[in-house]
Amino acid sequence: MGNKINNEPFVWKDEYNVDINIIDNQHKKFLDILNELKIIINNNSCKEHVSNIFFQIAYLIDHYFIKEEIYFKDCKYPNLEQHKKSHNIFIDRIIQFQKDVEAKKPDLCVEIYYFLEDWFDEHILKYDKEAVEYLKKSGVN
Ligand SMILES: [Fe+2]
Prior knowledge:
Blueprint: H1 21-42, H2 46-74, H3 80-102, H4 108-137
């Protein structure tokens, strides 16, 4: 199959830390899922493992998005609504992916992988960091 991806695992870097344990731990778990997806894709075992990937993503949504939103709300983060919107777009996309699994869409793990990789770069490393840095600057922690 022509859909191999670079199998070098992502390694957590100090610069990813926002220094709030709950958030950092969840971001690390997110990276673990990406690494697991790399293995699954390169082993051609998407079909067998994709439901477990969804299970892990659903766990992160239930635990991390909500905690993050509560934390940002408690700290009166002004861009909370925008941030929540971004989370909701993610959730909708995951629901769509689940429908694609039922429809037995080919190369789904590759699509999920690139979607999650983008999310890591665009949301986790930008929006989550921005939010926490803003809150720290405003003296909330
Ligand atoms: Fe977030």
